[in-house]
Design brief:
With about 290 residues, this protein is of the alpha/beta class. It folds into 2 domains: about 5-115 and about 280-285, ATPase, nucleotide binding domain (Nucleotidyltransferase, domain 5); about 130-270, Nucleotidyltransferase, domain 5 (2-Layer Sandwich). Helix content is about 35%, strand content about 20%. It has helices at about 45-55, 95-105, 110-125, 180-190, 195-205, 210-235, 250-260, 275-285, and strands at about 5-10, 15-25, 30-35, 65-70, 70-75, 80, 105-110, 130-135, 140-145, 150, 170, 170-175, 235-240, 265-270. The strands form 4 sheets. Strands 3-2-1-4-7 form a 5-stranded mixed β-sheet, sandwiched between helices. Strands 10-9-8-13-14 form a 5-stranded mixed β-sheet, with helices on both faces. It has a two-stranded antiparallel sheet with strand order 5-6. Strand 13 (about 235-240), helix 7 (about 250-260) and strand 14 form a beta-alpha-beta unit. Helix 4 packs antiparallel against helix 6, helix 5 packs across helix 6 and helix 6 (about 210-235) crosses helix 7 (about 250-260). The longest helix has 25 residues, at about 210-235. The chain is globular, with a radius of gyration of 19 Å.
Length: about 290
Amino acid sequence: MTQQQVVPVLEVGGTHVTAALVDLASHGVLAEHRGHPDAHGTAESLLGAWIDAARLLGPVEGDWVVAMPGPFDYASGVGRFRDVGKFDSLDGVDVGTALRAALDADVRFVNDADAYGLGEWFAGAAQGSSRAVLLTLGTGLGSAFVADGVPVDDGDSVPLDGEIHFATLRGLPIEEVVSRRALMAAGIAATGVERDVHELAIAARGGEAAASSVLASGFAAVGEVIRPWLERFDAEVLVIGGSMSRSWDLVEPAVLAGLDGWSGRLERAALGDTAPLLGAAWFGRGVDVV
């Protein structure tokens, strides 16, 4: 398999697409273009927007890597977005064939959470570790398990498909305990006021006991649900990113409480939106998912 040092990547999200040219040697992004296609648009409009973003990089050499959210058949490049609230028009569509034809290059796909985790392992908060777990706290709970630069998505040491959102805690799906939706619902139940998570964080810092309790309980659940998987995976470091990690002063102590003395280290994600770009490029240099 060819080892590329400068890798063109596409990172696809529910509200954006980013095309970038990544230099693995310097851990840098040489060029970047971002668009905001409608996730509910037609297959033609979505693919067209992704292709347009890629072409803004100009002529590039080498194979492309595309970081995609699931459900997606990463081996075949076919969308499986049925009844998930985004990209429904791509359900059953051979995205890989369309992109290869338009870009006149080979295209490989990687899960977006795996790309984020690989980026933090390669050049971020987990750099230098052998086995790392990354969680993203935001609309939901995302995860990546990385062993020596390879995303691990199956086997007894990781949750189903390597995705912690399939886990349960005290009989409830974990995203009913900690997610934007769950924390907002808990906030309403505790205070009678509807507030988003960042507003609860502001109230907690201002001394509001109810808001503090809601967030502490939710973030502690993150540590509690991931701890057995950290031990099974023999992880050295747990990295937490996503929008809620901006409230690290509230997240860190609560997660540590939930981890209950776990021997590894807890780190805040370091790379932000650059992580999945670097991770996709690392994946594209010639590493396969196991």
